[in-house]
Amino acid sequence: MFPELSFVKMQASGNDFLLINNFSRRILPEEAPVLARRLCRRRLSVGADGLILLEPPEDPTHAFRWRFFNADGSEAEMCGNGGRCAARFAVEEGLARPVLSFETRAGIIRARVQGSRVKVALTPPKDLSLGLKLLVEGKPLEVHFVNTGVPHAVVLVEDLEAAPVNSLGPALRYHERFSPAGTNVNFVEILSEEEIAVRTYERGVEGETLACGTGAAASALIAAELGKVRFPVRIRTRGGEILTIHREETLFLEGETRRIYRGLLHPEALLD
Ligand SMILES: N[C@@H](CCC[C@H](N)C(=O)O)C(=O)O
């Protein structure tokens, strides 16, 4: 299956992805989830948080349409850090100019690529709910929510190092309030009026990642709505990199991307 398939490994603030130019549609729609599950396995295969396929756009005014798959093979509507990597990949593959737009299941994403630095305009935030009182693992908890392309719950904490990301994360990810889609879960410490630190438990990776772009945007928006910060907001990610969230007509996510390598897939990478 897929010998000699060419892919590029990239990361943006520690969120890592495999990117494939699928304009030829060599990978069929039904094959993509399996490919994501197999290739994203850490240690056993290439390893990544997600797989991104770039395909011909429905509307030719956009550079491409993407399909985004989490490491567990589930398809997500959007991914902020993945979007930044995809925009740069498209420019470097000759599929797009540095100011571009592309189609996602969440809507149209606009991007500006300046070398390794990429800024994307996210889809307008929706379903904002502040101060939800939830019962989580038998205890009351205040949780905020917004969809910045994908769903995000946000919990403010005093000490991010001590935040129970790996117990409260899954409990909220599967909480009935967010059913059936589930949610990503962000833990946020306010550092100043311009800066927050965020740790994210990601849906579809089913664990903490080093950063999450739409989660960073959701966290900044909620912190601003609660009167704790002012835009632009700097986000200190788990991986240590600083992302910037701007608010103009929508939320913008800006930061560095890294191209790691181009690989040619060996069929054994896909074995059970
Ligand atoms: N890491 C991403 C979000 C990817 C999708 C997410 N795991 C989901 O299923 O909702 C980002 O940078 O935004």
Automatic annotation (TrEMBL):
MF term (GO), any: diaminopimelate epimerase activity
Gene Ontology biological process terms from the UniProt entry: lysine biosynthetic process via diaminopimelate
Classification via Pfam families: DAP_epimerase (PF01678)
Gene Ontology CC, one term: cytosol
Enzyme class: isomerase
Swiss-Prot/TrEMBL site (Could be important to modulate the pK values of the two catalytic cysteine residues) positions: 152, 202
InterPro entries named in the record: DAP_epimerase_AS, DAP_epimerase_DapF
Catalytic reaction list: (2S,6S)-2,6-diaminopimelate = meso-2,6-diaminopimelate
Active site per database record: 79 (proton donor), 79, 212 (proton acceptor)
Domain of life: Bacteria
EC number: 5.1.1.7
Keywords: Amino-acid biosynthesis, Cytoplasm, Isomerase, Lysine biosynthesis
Residues annotated as binding substrate: 15, 70, 80-81, 184, 202-203, 213-214
Pathway where it operates: Amino-acid biosynthesis; L-lysine biosynthesis via DAP pathway; DL-2,6-diaminopimelate from LL-2,6-diaminopimelate: step 1/1
Subcellular location: Cytoplasm
Function: Catalyzes the stereoinversion of LL-2,6-diaminopimelate (L,L-DAP) to meso-diaminopimelate (meso-DAP), a precursor of L-lysine and an essential component of the bacterial peptidoglycan.
Family affiliation: Belongs to the diaminopimelate epimerase family.
Subunit structure: Homodimer.
HAMAP family linked: DAP_epimerase
Name recorded for this polypeptide: Diaminopimelate epimerase
Gene symbol of the encoding locus: dapF
